[in-house]
Each structure stands twice: as C-alpha cells, then as structure tokens.
Write a structure and sequence with these properties.
alpha/beta; seven-stranded mixed sheet; four-stranded mixed sheet; 19% strand; globular
C-alpha cells in the first residue's frame, strides 16, 4: 500500500497520538531497514532500543515460529514451560529473587510501584527530574514532566521529586519513603547517566530508612550498556529492576525482577495481566536473553560504544557526547536543531536516529552493529551540517 494511502487511513481512522515520519518500513534484517520502495536504511535507533539483537535475528525468528505452531495463549490460570523458564533465567541473570511478567515497560513499572506500596503501605515514591517511566497513570505520575502530566491531572498521589545530587536524594528519603524509582541512565530525558556517587547515596539512604531501591532498566538493560544490566557497572545493586523493550527480541514483553528481600512481597491477587507471560513472547525472550548474555557480544558493545563516541566527538557540530555502551546521546552546537537533523538524517541520508530534545540526539543501534556501520553512520551524519 502506498504511503499516501496509509496516511489517508491514519487521518480517518487512527487517534492522532503519534507524529510519524514520512517513511513506511516493510522489512528489516540485522542493522538494516528497507522502505516500500526497496531503499535501505541504517537503523541506529533499533525501534527505541527494542531490537538489541537486530531485526529478525534467526534464533528469535525460529523460536517464535516453533512456538506459534504449538501454542499461542492459555492465560496465567495454567502453567507454560516458557514463562517459568524465562522467570528463572531473568532472576538468575540479575537479582536472584522472583519475577512478575507483563507486556511492556510501563506495566513493569506499574508492578514496581505496587510492589513498593505493598512493601511500605501508603509510602511515598521518590523520583527524579528528567525521568520517564511510562504513560499509564502510575508510571506517568512517576514521570515529573509538566507537558506530559498536566493534561491528565489529577495524578496518582504520593510521588516526591528529588534533585539529582547526593545530598538531595539523602534528604528526600525518610521514614515515609516506600521506594526510590530511577533509571541508571535516563534515556528519554536525553541519555543522562546518574553518577556513581548519586546512586551510592540513594542506596545508603534506602538502607537506612528501609526503603526499596528500584532501577528502571527498560532501556538500559539487555546488554545495551555493555553489561547485561546497567546496574552491574555502577557498584550499586537495587532491590528490584524492571525490564522490557529488548527483552522480547522485537515482541512486546515486560518484567519486574526482585531481589530476595522483596521476592514474596506481592501476594496472590495483588496483580495480574491476561496476556502476561504468553508462550510465544516468552519463547522469543528466552532466545533474546541468551543472545544478549553472550560475553563476546557484551565486549563488542563496549568496544563499539567507545568507537562511536570517539567518532561523534570529532564532528564539528557536536558539543559533547554522553552515555555508555551503545546508548549514546549527542549534544549539538547552538543553532543546530536536533529534531531537524534527525528528520534530515532519515530522509536525506537514510539513517534512523531520533531527538530527545531541541539540541540532543539519541542513538542506540542494534548491539550487533559493526565498525564499518558505525563509521558509515557518522559519515552520513557529518554530511548534514557543512
């Protein structure tokens, strides 16, 4: 179907919550996408960090095909091997507690909020400026961005915003605090890493007050930063973490993973989801998790991240580069619009990236990206600004 026909269908039938780029993608493989005219693009966004293993990874495709031919859904009233095995693999790969499976990052964060309130009934949840935890009501209430929150007030009460410095987070955590919810690197906020000192202060204050420390690893997990989970590089172990995006290898799935302390906090009937832990998505997630856990791939992510950051720093219109592994943000010089640059990169250079603000680009290619593809992406980006 032609792009103009799709746009006409959208105008007539689709609630206008998205501003779409003027491209229709019809196929993907590895780090490449193809549009409806057969033109190839370099994908350095990976579906917003969903395709960490690349488009249509053969092991993920095989897992989906095999499972779909056997069983697609039965609900959580019954057992499936895939959900039980995935829960085991997730817990053993991280915090060693237990797992609640769901369908998205926002749902995983909703589960984390309920976990925190079960842990300390009526307690406050401390969150940070520039955070993004999702668009459902609890997750939105944990996302202190006026433009996103204001149209939908009143929100869920009991969220406290702390500034991002060690003294502020220490002061914000008290006897009423149920949990601190934070992203080790704030992806939607502009790829903003939280300092080790800040995370250590949050951990110490949570331990002092008996509050839970919860890491939102929806974007930073599954190898994106060079370790399977970003917390592994911080020296701070959370009490729980959330995962989604890349977990399903391209299919929608989310998870709340606890440490041992909070493993039995939620009780039968406290939470649920009709589609959560379905056998097809769990089969895909098992394959994706296995791939993203491979030591050689994780070492590759770190090496490619260093190469990518160094190359971006050489571009004359790039003021600074931040991030870790292959989660990278670039701050642009005054007068260079990140939004316009991302649009032109797509349409003129066939490079898929995006802007997280007026002057900030975000780039997160599939973890299998090669040196040659990184060099080519930087060349294409460099051609856009004389």
């Amino acid at each position: 179907m032609a792009l103009a026909e799709l746009q006409a269908l959208e105008r007539e039938w689709v609630i206008p919550t998205y501003v779409r780029n003027q491209v229709e993608f019809v196929r993907g493989q590895g780090v490449s996408l193809w549009d409806d005219s057969g033109v190839e693009y370099l994908d350095f966004l990976a579906g917003i960090s969903v395709l960490n293993v690349g488009h249509c990874h053969p092991r993920v495709v095989a897992a989906i095909q095999e499972q779909t031919a056997k069983l697609t859904h039965v609900s959580n009233l019954y057992y499936t091997e895939q959900a039980m095995r995935l829960s085991q693999e997730l817990a053993q790969s991280s915090l060693g507690g237990k797992v609640f499976l769901c369908n998205s990052g926002a749902e995983a964060n909703e589960a984390a909020i309920k976990l925190a309130r079960r842990h300390r009934p009526g307690g406050d949840i401390v969150v940070l400026p520039d955070a993004f935890h999702g668009r459902t009501y609890g997750a939105l209430s944990a996302t202190p961005q006026e433009a996103k929150q204001a149209p939908f007030a009143p929100l869920v009460p009991g969220f406290v915003v702390s500034e991002k410095d060690p003294a502020a987070i220490d002061a914000a955590i008290g006897s009423r605090t149920a949990a601190v919810l934070l992203e080790p690197i704030q992806g939607e906020g502009g790829v903003l890493p939280l300092s080790a000192e800040f995370l250590q202060a949050a951990r110490a204050a949570c331990d002092r007050e008996g509050a839970a420390l919860i890491f939102d690893e929806v974007q930073t997990g599954m190898g994106r930063t060079g370790t399977l989970w970003a917390y592994e590089q911080t020296g701070v172990v959370p009490d729980a973490l959330t995962s989604a995006k890349a977990l399903g290898g391209g299919l929608p799935i989310g998870a709340l993973v606890t440490g041992e302390k909070l493993a039995d906090t939620l009780r039968p009937g406290d939470h649920g989801s009709t589609f959560a832990g379905g056998p097809v998505t769990c089969a895909a997630a098992l394959a994706a998790l296995e791939i993203c856990s491979e030591p050689d791939l994780l070492a590759h992510v770190s090496a490619m991240g260093e190469r990518f950051i160094a190359a971006l720093e050489e571009l004359p219109f790039v003021v600074s580069v931040r991030g870790r592994g292959l989660l990278i943000g670039a701050e642009l010089a005054s007068g260079v619009s990140a939004i316009e640059l991302a649009r032109r990169a797509l349409l003129e250079e066939r490079l898929v990236i995006n802007a997280t603000g007026p002057s900030s680009l975000r780039m997160e290619p599939p973890l299998i990206v090669t040196e040659a593809q990184i060099d080519e992406a930087v060349r294409r980006l460099g051609r856009l600004v004389p």
